[in-house]
Amino acid sequence: MYRKRATTIAVVMILVLAAFAAAQTTRKEMHFKVGRRASISIVNQYGPISVKPGPGKRVMVTATLYSGKVEIDQSKRGNRVSVLSHLLDGADATTGRVDYEVLVPADASVTLHSTTGPLRVEKLRGDVILEGSTAMVDVRDVNAAHVHVKTLNGPVTLTNVSDGYVEVTSVSGDVALNAVNGAQVHVNSSSGRIHYDGDFGEAGQYSLTSHSGDIEAIAPSYASIEVVARSVQGRVENDFPLEPEHTSFVTRAGSAFAGTVGKAASSVKLLSFSGKIHLKKREQ
Amino acid sequence: MTCEEFERVLPELGSGHSIEQEEHLKSCPACSDLVGDLNAISQQARHLQGSEEPSPWVWNSIEVALRQEGLIRQPQQQHALLHPPRLSWKLRWLVPAAAVFLVVAGVLMHQRGAAPARIAEQQSQPAGVVTADLQRPNQPEVMAGDDLQLLNTVASRTPSMRAAYEENLRAVNAYIRDAEQSAHSDPNDEVAQQYLRNAYEQKAMVYEMALDRSLP
Known about the structure:
The structure holds 2 protein chains of 2 kinds. Chain A has one helix at 2-24; strands spanning 26-33, 39-44, 49-53, 58-65, 70-77, 80-87, 98-104, 109-114, 119-122, 128-132, 137-143, 146-151, 156-162, 165-170, 175-180, 184-189, 194-197, 205-210, 215-219, 225-231, 236-238, 243-244, 256-261, 266-272, 277-281.
């Protein structure tokens, strides 16, 4: 008898709390008409931002707010749209959180800032600038664009970025590039690991550099690269048969190697101070 | 009006001067030369500004640094993204100069080698971003004053982020130390120079992120 009553009370309390939480959640939608190659900027201290291509020349922003301690400021000037989470006094990571889902024209340039993230962008052809301290960053299916990412310790994953100008700087976040190629692909890390899995494209400049993080690059046997790899204190391994090449430093087995594979269409630098470096041949 | 008083109001001067300031300029060749130099730099910087406007994030970082220096005093009332900080036009030349300086100064100081401590002291506040560890190469555990100030700024704004910034600053400082040692041991090593540039770039990024977050 008592047990049944206690269960009933518990259920009622959960429902009341859920209703209370729902009442605290506010959903706000914003629509902007834009032209070709619009510029979209979203600044959100706490919470995720997800950007996908939408229909037509229109930007649609859906923001979910979890308290009254944060407001949304918005502006549109010409072809530039800015949306900002404006924290009020006393807001913290919980009460200041805003979740953004954004649809933009595929050719729009997008700039996203969030401390906590995550930040997700997919299927765009415009430039993508992402910055987040601890935010996880995920960019996929972006073509012919600049992709610039900065994080402190947020992990970064780029997938299917073709013909790009890619620049990733992360202090301690792991960086993974899958099927990423382009004219310029640069990763600069302190202690995060760097993982590259792709074919290094054609006529690109690739540099993966870390202080103490390990670097692993996986390429197919048909890759066409001129490669330099060196670690001052870490171990260096290579699975490819290299044509030797002159370098500005002494290549020592186990700590540095240099050479060419195929026609050496792309330049690849793998540099670490104390991390391990491994250039792997992808198994067919 | 004394030179000290004039220098105090110098950053806030627009195109005109008060009678008192005009009189001081007439009677003081040093201050008159200073204003002349600033005007000349400002004129040159305008040409640069037209070709490539820095992002609002750079403006924000510089503004915070200047505010911490006491060079500007009025707090920014409007949000920086929508309304970029309105620095006096005379100070705008500092923006490209300081942005470039953050990355380049450390490398140059390292390469020149001569009297790095003195240079670091003279340019300590904004430049301290990249010079702090040059002064204490053998004390990796001690966080430099500029770094501590930065962490306090982060903590005052977002306490939960202090630990993350501290951890990452230590990682970057370790990178800089190793890169410097590597470059010292072989100054002609291109790869060592690359490590050094990357390390300083990381530190500049950490400062930029932290200062930007500290805006009201």
